[in-house]
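User: For a reading group we're discussing how well predicted structures match intuition. Take Type III pantothenate kinase. Before you show the prediction, I'll give you the sequence so everyone sees exactly what went in.
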Amino acid sequence: MSSETILLFDVGNTNTKIGFSTRDKIGPSFTLPTDPGGTADSWGLKLVEICRVAGYSNEDIIGGAVSSVVPPMNPILKRAVERFFPCELRFAPDSIPLALNNKYERPWEVGADRLVTAFAGRQISDSENLIVVDFGTATTFDCVVGMDYMGGLICPGVLSSTKALASGTAKLPHISLEIECDTIRPGKSTADSLNQGLIFGFAAMVEGLSERLGKTLGGEVELIATGGFASKIAEVCQAIDRVEPTLLLDGLRMAWFGSEK
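Assistant: Thanks. Here is the predicted 3D structure of Type III pantothenate kinase, as structure tokens, for the group to look at:
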């Protein structure tokens, strides 16, 4: 394996994505439930097994980069990597610098995931004005003008909205989030109505909010979508210019190797 392989961690409120990366590209990735009740040993053993399945040895790993919005996970992962691997973890943005000027009123309040995806979007886009939409536990809109992170919006997530509907209504059928065509029409069943309402509803939210944000930012805006539901929403959302499924991991990759120059 490459002598420049690092571990990448996207620690979210629901799941933790663990990936491998070289300087040039993202390798295989795996998703585990985020469990701050686990120990450093339990997480370390999971990481060793993931490496084995992916075809890496512990000695192949030269470092690790983390984006975390779950603070209790940070010391657990740090100790796990230090015990089982010949390297240490670094956390964005505290110990991995991101080439963005954080214009948030209280800069420390911005989630690491939002900053990393905004940074990654800036690295791959030539547009002066940029909006990154991340369909995660929440749906976030993050705005970048030039090299300035301007802030953004936090809205309900697709999955959290689905769960809220399902848990609050006893007779609702299973919600698949699958639609038969890319043209909205009156639903012919409860399941069809729900699926169309969620998919086209979130598409309309993205179209409407991005248009309003664009007027505030000034000039044309490129919109990059990422997160688990990005591809599905993009099929019916005219505002989305491109989908980057691994944008956060790519941001960690670019930031980590960029800081090693």
